[in-house]
Amino acid sequence: MRPSGRKLDEMRAVSIETGFTKHAEGSALIKMGDTHVLCTATIEDRVPPFIKGSGLGWVTAEYGMLPRATNTRMRREAAMGKQGGRTVEIQRLIGRSLRAGVDRSALGERQITIDCDVLQADGGTRCASITGGWVALKLAVNKLLKAGDIVSDPLVDPVAAVSCGIYAGQPVLDLDYPEDSEAGVDGNFILTGTGRLIEVQMSAEGQTFSRDQMNQLMDLAEKGMSELVTVQKAATL
């Protein structure tokens, strides 16, 4: 039934390669099927003005797609002079999602910026960015701990994200682009490793959905989340 031949509750193949770049304090190349995102973490001894002097740290994110990440070339947003609304929305989502798993007082007054660059897109780029971004963040925090710059781990819970939707009348896990482009219902689920919800983005795309279908999608998201956290933890051992 699915274009990829996967079962309804089957994730795409997921892999995370750490240390992909040598300069960033943390880096991870995440592959979720044919969606590939490079996530890098940068530590700075400063925080935004609105929390300066509070003793709290900050985690933020930036997101972008390479011109040939998709079938046709997209102009670089820098060449157009401004970021698009989709880019701004996604990077804000990544930042607030990752902050949900951080004890900002334990981080201290420093900022960690997660840069998420989509090398190849086949659906679910924001979910891959959040999942890979947490790994890059974890690697950067490990360096702070090793150096003695912080005394306790500020990452209280892993954070990951997965898409679910109604495709051809059936609830499916981890939509790729052919499914995403034709799904009657499409959603992104961001959760912590202990199953706490951070954010759910759900919308009907030509058909409505029931409470029972919503619950089915939530069950699929929890299954996918469990698999993603396993991969995250293996990558950061």
TrEMBL record:
The keyword Protease does not apply. Residues 10-140, 157-224 form the Exoribonuclease phosphorolytic domain. Phosphate binds at residues 86, 124-126. Its EC number is 2.7.7.56. GO terms for biological process: rRNA 3'-end processing; rRNA catabolic process; tRNA processing. PROSITE patterns: RIBONUCLEASE_PH. This is Ribonuclease PH. It comes from Pseudosulfitobacter pseudonitzschiae.
